Amino acid sequence: MIKLFNNFIEKESLCSKSQKILLAVSGGVDSVVLLDLFAKLNYKIAIAHCNFQLRGEESTEDEEFVARLAEHYNVPLYVKKFDTIAHAKANKQSIEMAARELRYQWFDVLLEKKGFDLLATGHHINDSIETFFLNLTRGTGINGLTGIKPKNNRLIRPLLFATREQISKYAKDNNILFRYDQSNDSTQFLRNYIRLQVIPALKKINPSFEQVMERNIQNIKNASAVFNSTIDETKEKLVKEYESSYHIDIELLKQVKHHSIVLFEIISKWGFNAEQTLSILNTIDEQSGKVFYSTTHQLLIDRNSLIIESIIAETSEKWTFANEEELINSPLFNTAEIIVIDNFKINKSKNFACIDYDKLTYPIEIRKWKTGDSFNPLGMKQSKKLSDFFIDKKLNRFDKSKVQVMISDKKIVWIMGMRIDNRFKVNSKTQRVLLLGV
What is the pTM (predicted TM-score) of this model? Predict the structure, then answer.
């Protein structure tokens, strides 16, 4: 087992003995065997243990057991207690999802604060097979059927060469003690149901099921490499990246063969699922302005593009400046200065506003635009609603939601980053210019 473990690490280029490795150790057989193998090969290791406080006294006993392991192997130990149930309720998550989120957030903190190079977990072949079926039942593309990766950024899984049975045999042969989590026998969790009910039924059909599935997953990985190469080439043509958003050209997308698969592979990285992909394609011609949401991103069907942006929490925040000093020193502006008109040259960039300072009245306010707002666009004497101005500018829904306006004496002075009001423009009578840049 030690030789197979070492060979797998070398074959997959998982880690080196010069690196510091943090081991996620629950006290179960997989993580304890992982600890034993790393220790016997003299790697620089430490233990991280999560106490999710889900099993009463048993959770405390797990923590105490792992503490004894750390002492036995003479390695550093880090322990964290979590109120997992409260976190799950607050975030409307399953217990499984909450525990996963909590532990990996903490692991990331440990990696940074304590200077670890890598995090190692005890996932094995059976975990990879279970992940295959888990993703299959939830709906996935080809990449979701490739099981668990041996390495994902700083996360490594050095036991992915072994089955659960091989790991248990190693523990027995080497008199390695471990804790057993009774919740592993509960079929209320989908992964447990697959492990306890689905896979045993399939093994009755083929006793070599695990070996066959290992080959199947490897074949799918090979096929996905070819598939991903084609998808990447198509992405280059379809997707344009901007400062804070991604735009997918709708007409070009329609011309692509099997465009539903291509679209799913593009937007799934932002958390959109297969069902949403079909809904987007079904409404792409009729519902410009419709928005779809994943947990982290929003997708807008615009006139010519699908626009993807991160979800930003809405804010009603506004800023009020009582005097000149507050305005000039505000962090809202990249540039803010009052200039005497002599030798002044107007900056015509849309990110700058040149305003007749003496026409302003304090307090000056900056806020998000509202329905019903109107102004006199520069060069025009008549009033225009901002909503109509945005239509003329062909602003999409996302862009409109970010627009802020500068107000003086209940009048819009500047649609920030776009256009000033004609009533506040610099003219031949101007004495002082307020130059603002965003």
Answer: 0.65
